[in-house]
Structure formats: C-alpha cells, structure tokens
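Q: How would the structure tokens look for this protein?
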Amino acid sequence: MVVPADAAKDAGQAAGAQDAAAVILRTMRPIVAAIEDEAVRSQVADAVLSAVQDPGKLSAIHDAAAAGAKKAADQSAATSYEQRCAESQAAYADRNPHKRREKEV
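A: Here is the predicted structure in token form.
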C-alpha cells in the first residue's frame, strides 16, 4: 500500500498534502495489515487509498483533525485556567489570617 511520489505529484497535490498523505499511509499500513479477512483488508486499503488520492477528502480529513485538536486545546486551556484559579484561591485562603483562624478553631 505505497503511493509513489510521482503519482501524488501527477494527481495535482501540493507538497503539504503529499506529506500528510505519506503520514496517513505510514500510520494506516500496520492497521490494514492486521486485518485477517482478505476481502475486508482489500476494501479498507482501497478506501484509504481513495481518501489519500482525492484532494477533497484529504482536506476534509485535515479539517476534521484540526477541529478536534482545537476543541481539545480549548477544553484543556479552560480546565487548566480554572484549576489555576482554584489553586490560587486556596493558597490565598491559607495565607489569610482570618481564614486560618476559622480552620484552627
């Protein structure tokens, strides 16, 4: 399941798309090879190749991956910000003599 570089250039894909296609093929190769049923393996290989060779599908894969990465980054940023706020508030409460008195009593 290897696409020659010349074939990708002939298909009109840019260098970045060729790199992405190569990464997808390298990643999918062991997964496809692990499929025991030959008919299913052939269907999956054909689907992967058609997705990589079609610039529209490749850009859709890229957009989906970018959207997922952005969503994960936004969630982790919000979580880490809220966590830092809670830690800061707890540290402030520990240093505040009025709060300490409440704990000691």
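Helices lie at 5-10, 15-33, 38-53, 55-95, 97-104.

The radius of gyration is 25 Å.

Upvote if useful.
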